[in-house]
Design brief:
The complex is a heterodimer of chains A (869) and B (231). Chain A is α+β, with helices and mostly antiparallel strands and 869 residues long. Chain A contains 27 helices and 21 strands. In chain A, strand 12 and strand 13 form a beta hairpin. The chains are: A alpha+beta (869), B alpha/beta (231).
Chain lengths: 869, 231
Amino acid sequence: MSLLPNCMALRLAWRETRADWRRFTYFFVCIALGVAALVGVGLFAANMDRAIQREARGLLAADVELRTARPLTPEGETILARFDGRGIARMHVSELVAMAAASAGTQLIELKAVEPGYPFYGKLRADPEDAPAALFGGSQVLAGETLLIRLGLKVGDRLKIGQADFRIAGVLKKEPDRAAGAFSFGPRVLMSGQSLDATQLVQPGSRVTHRYLFKLPEALSPRAVQGELASTFPDKTLRVSTYQESQPILRRFLRQLTMYLGLVGLIALMVGGIGVAGSVRAFLKEKLETIAVLKALGAESRTILQVYFTQTLLLGLVGSLAGAALGAALQIALPPLVKTWLTIDLEFQFAWLPFVRGVAMGLLTTALFSLWPLLEVRHVRPNLIFRREVSEEPAGSPGRAAWIAGALLALALAGLALWQAGSWRAAGLFIGALVAALGLLQGAAWLAVRLARFIAGARAPIGMGSDAPAPRARAGRAGRSLSLPGLSLIWRQGLANLYRPGSQAKTILVSVGVGVMVILAIHLVERNILWEIGENIPADAPSFFFIDIQPDQKDAFARLMAERGHADIRLTPLVRSRLWALNGKPVRRENHEEREHDWYYTREYVLTFQEGLPKDNVVVKGQWWDSPGSSGHMRVSVEEEAAHRLGLDLGSTVAFDIQGATVSGTVTSIRKVEWGNMSTNFYFIFEPGALDGAPMTYVATARVNPTEEVPLQRAVVAAFPNVSAINIRDVLDSVARVVDRISLVIRFMAGLSILAGSVVLAGALAATRFRRIYEAMILKAVGATRGTVAGIFAVEYALLGAAAGVIGTGLAVALAWGVGRWILDVKWLFQPAALAWGIAATMAGTILVGFLSTYRILGQKPLPVLRRE
Amino acid sequence: MIAIRNLSMRLSSGGREVSILDDITLEVPAKQFLAIVGPSGSGKSTLLGLIAGMDAPTAGIIALDGRDITNLSEDELARLRREKVGYVFQSFHLIPTLTARENVAVPLELAGDHEAVHKADALLRAVGLEARGHHYPAQLSGGEQQRVAVARAFANRPAILLADEPTGNLDTATGQQVIDLLIRLNHDHGSTLVLVTHDQTLAAYADRVIRLLDGRIASDELRSPAFGAHP
C-alpha cells in the first residue's frame, strides 16, 4: 500500500491542518525540541572542529613537537642538533608545578619556561600588550590573573619562585598552546628558560615536562620530520607529534563530549517521538466520526491514510525546521558553558550538514512514531456514525505492511543516529541501551497501570468498548483484584484515571520516565566521580603533599617539620620510570597506543621501596618480604588491577627503565590498594635496596590544621624553595569544578529531554481533556466541588509522577551503575537521598505540569458541556 | 419550591447572539410534578439545567426554597445540588470507570456518608438492579443505565428531582419503567419532580404541563390537583 500522497490527499490534508492547527501544538513542540537538541549539538561540534583546525598550529605553537618527561641525555641533544641547519628552528619549553611566594602567602603555580621566539605560531597575549618582550630582559615573569588576586599582587610587584626573585611584568592572558586547561594545579606563570635555571627548581628527578618545538620551512613535511625524530631517538617514551594531531587529548575529549551530547539530544528526539505518537492518536480519536463519514461516502482506507500521513509529515517538516532554527540559536547558549575550560575562540558559522541531518531525523522520527496510530485508521468502520457511543480505540493489528515499514524507518533512524554519533560502537551501544530502556519503561508502565487497576479493584478488562463482555468472563476476574471499599472517591477516581480506557498513563510514564532516567543518571555518575575523588577521604588522610624533596634535603625537611610539631610526617622515596619489559619481552609503546587500557603499558610508573606493607594495603596473593630474600632477582609487589591488566602473576618478571638504567624484579606478592585513602599509593613496590642509586626524590605527607596551613607552607618554601606543597583540598576543589562544568553542559542538553517530556505530559493530558471535562462536569452535576475534582486530578498526577519517578529512578540507577562500571571505572555508591529527591521532584513536576494543563477545567460550567454530548 | 423570575439566557453562536430563554417567570410549589414540553430547541433542557445551577443565566433570578442561586459560586452550587437536586440526563452520563454501585454511591460519598455503598445497594434494589451493582455502564443496557442514573439522582433524597428527557434514548417499554420509577419517587418521598419531555403521553402523567416555544412559556396548564392523576 502506497503512502505517497496524491493531489486529493494533499488538498484534504491541508484542509484538515488549516482547520485544526492548534491541536498540533504539542506535536510541533515535541519534534522541534528534539531536532533543536540534535542540530544544536551538531553545529556546536562542527564549529568546535573548525576552530581547532584553524588554530591547529597555534595549539601546538609549532609544526612538530617532541615531548618527554625527562631531560634529554647528551646523546639526545646531539641527535636534536642534527636537525639544525636545514632551515628548522627549534626551542625548548619546560613545564612544571612550583610554588610562588609573596608577602601575602604562597601559592602553587603552573610554571612554563620558554625561549625567545616563543611561540612559533599563535599569539601570546598579555596585559600590557608589550609585556611578553620583558620576559627575556632580566628577572621578569608574566603571571595569570588568579595568582595576582590570590596573593594580592599587581603588575610591577615582586614574586619569589624557587631561589629567585622576579618582577611581574604583566598579566598573562593567553598562551596559544594551552587550550585545554581542563585540569590545573594553579595559576599560570610564564618565564624565560634562563630565569628557570635561576630558580634552581629543576633538580634530578623533578617532575618537569620538556617540550622541544620545531618550526619547519615550507618545503619540509611535518610528518617526515616526525617520522625521522621518532625513528632516530632510542628512547621510546618520547612522544613526537605534528600540529595536525595537536591536542589529542583535547580533541578526543571534545569528540567524546559532543558524542555524548548528541546521544543525549537523541533521547530528547525519542521522547518527542513518543509525544508525536500520543498527539496523532489523540487527534485521530477525535476524527473517528470524520473518518467514518469519509468511509461512508466511499473513501478507501488508503486515501484516508494518505491524508493523515501527509498531514503528519508536513507538520513534522515544519516542526523540524523550527527546531533546527532553535538549534542554531542554541549556539548562543552552548559556547559560554564550555568557555571556562576552553580557550579556543569559537565563532559561529552555519553548517548545512548538521542542519539537514537534524531535519531528516525529525522527519523520520515523525514518520516512525505516527505510522502505528495512523494505520489504525483502516479499522474504523463506517457504521460508527450511526452510533452515539464511540468505541475508544479501533481494534485490530497494524498488519504486516506496518511492521515492514516500521522496521525500515527504525533502521533509517538508527543509521542517522550512528552518523550523528560518529562512533559505531558507542552509538550502537547507546541505541541498544535506549531501546532496552524504552522496552523496560513500557513494561514497567504496563505493570504500573495493572497495579493501579488491581488496587482499585476494577474488574472490567481494559479497553472495553460498547460490546460488553459476557458476565461470566468478569466473574472470573473478580477474584484477582484487590477491592478496597475504604478507598475514598477521590482516590478511586484518581486511580481509575490511570487505567481507564483511552488513558494516556503509559505514554506519560514512558516519556517522563526517560527524562528522569537521563537527568538522574547523569547526576548519579557525577556524584560517584566526585565521591570517588574526594568525598571518601578517610579522617586520617593527609591534607598536604610536599613533593620534589631532594635526598640531601630529606633530613633537614624532617627536622623542620618536627620543630613545627609534625613529627608524624611520612617521607616516601619516589623513582620515576617507565615499563621496559614484561617477562623478558620488551614493552613497545606503539604496540599499545590504541588498545583499551593501553594506559597501563604506556604510563609513567612511580616506584618506591619499602620495608613494611603500607597502610591500607592487603596482600591477596603471595607474601610480603618479611625475611631477607635470596640474592639475584629483587622482589617486587604489584597492585591487583595492574597485575591483571599487564598479565602479571607470582613469579613474573617486570623490568623498568629508570632514566636509561634498567631495574627488574620478580613478582612475589599482589596487593589490594585502597586508592581513596589519599595517601601515597603505588602500583609497584620494590624491596629495600632494589632502587639504590636511582635518581629519586621524596614526597612527604602531613596532616595540617587549616590554621597552620599558610605558616607551614611559607616556612617550607623559605627553607626549601624547590619543594612544592600541594594542598589536597585545593586540588579536589578544582577537579570538582571541572566535573561540575562538564556535567552542566550535559545536563543542559538533558534538560531539553526533560522539557520534551513535560510537553509530552502536557500533550497527553490535553488529549484526555475532553474526557476530563466531561467527567468533571458529571461529578459537579451530582454535587462535587472544585476541590473534589482538583483532588482527583492531584491523586492522578501524583500517582503518575510517583510511578514515573520510581521507574525512571530505577533505570537511572542501572544506567549510572553500568556507566560507572564499564565506562568510567569508578566505584559504585548507593545514594538513597538523590533517588528520593528524584522521585519527589518528578512527582512535584508532574503535578505542576498536570495542573497547568488542566486547571481551567475546574471552572467550567456543567450544563454546556453535558448538553453538547 | 422553585421560583423563577424574568429568566433569560442568551448564547453567542458564530458571532451572533441567540436567545435560548426569554423572560421566563415560573413558580413550582413543593411536591409538584411538572412536565415541560416543547419542540427541539425551545429551551427546555436549558431551563432545567439552569434550575440545577449547572450554568449561569444571562439575566433573572432562580430561587430554590427561597434562596437565589444565580449569585452562588461554583462550589456553593455544587453543594446545593448535592443536598437538594437530583438530575437525570437523557444520555445517562454515568461515569464509565465506576461500577453501577459506585456510580450511585458517588453523591452519597460526596456528602460524606459513611454508609454510601450500603445505601447504594438499597437504591439499586429499589430500581430493580440489585444484581447488576458490580457491572460497568458499558456492560448495562440503556434502560438499566438510566435506572442507575435515577438511583444516583435520588441517592441523597433530594427535594427536587430534575429529569431531562429521561426516556429519550430508550424504547417505549423501558422508558415506561423509568417514568414509573420517577413518579413513584415523587409520590413516596414528596420530591418536586420537573420532567422535560417532548413526549405527550409522558406529560399526561404530570400535575401541570408547561409548553415552551422559542424560549418563552406558550402555555401553562394545571391538569389536576397535586398528586391527583397518577397511573
